[in-house]
């Protein structure tokens, strides 16, 4: 989980929705397939629960879900798909948390397999270097700079 900790460290993302929004911006190509697969899994779980007469009301009461939602389901003569949709909406924070976790694991796996390169991370205190600073550091490391555009001039070969 080092990648996840490194990804979220330094970014004031206290809320799971903002984490998902940030990951969508940075890693949309991994997050979207993970979200589709996990969403299909959640729908399947909720459908099986509703179809097999699982006492959804009792589970929601034990999870301390708002009475507003429980009463809407309790007095409802809605079909299975309406119950599935209601459960899908109620469990949205948990769904997003699983999506962010799955995306983090997917990114780590893709990097490990060599399909993705690590993004360069800069700290907020790091400032971009000016061209003059880059040239002076280059001079210190490699010698003289003789070209007008700041490229290194090599010494001529000794014969």
Automatic annotation (TrEMBL):
Keyword Cell membrane (UniProt): no
Domain DUF1279: start-end pairs: 19-104
Organism domain of life: Eukaryota
Sorted UniProt keywords: Coiled coil, Membrane, Transmembrane, Transmembrane helix
Biased amino acid composition, Polar residues: 121-134, 150-159
UniProt key word Coiled coil: yes
Segments of this protein annotated with the region Disordered: 120-159
Listed transmembrane segments: 27-49, 94-111
Localization annotation: Membrane
Membrane topology: Single-pass membrane protein
Pfam families assigned: FAM210A-B_dom
Protein name (Swiss-Prot/TrEMBL): Uncharacterized protein C18orf19 homolog A isoform X3
Annotated source species: Neodiprion lecontei
């Amino acid at each position: 989980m080092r990648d996840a900790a490194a990804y979220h460290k330094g970014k004031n993302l206290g809320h799971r929705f903002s984490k998902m929004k940030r990951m969508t911006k940075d890693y949309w190509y991994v997050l979207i397939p993970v979200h589709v697969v996990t969403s299909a899994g959640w729908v399947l779980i909720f459908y099986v629960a509703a179809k097999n007469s699982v006492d959804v009301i009792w589970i929601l009461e034990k999870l301390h879900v708002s009475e507003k939602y429980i009463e809407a389901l309790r007095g409802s003569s809605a079909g299975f798909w309406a119950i599935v949709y209601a459960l899908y909406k109620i469990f949205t924070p948990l769904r997003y948390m699983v999506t962010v976790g799955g995306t983090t694991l997917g990114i780590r796996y893709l990097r490990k397999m060599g399909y993705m390169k690590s993004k360069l991370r800069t700290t907020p205190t790091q400032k971009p270097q000016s061209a003059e600073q880059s040239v002076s550091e280059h001079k210190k490391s490699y010698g003289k700079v003789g070209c007008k555009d700041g490229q290194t001039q090599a010494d001529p070969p000794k014969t």
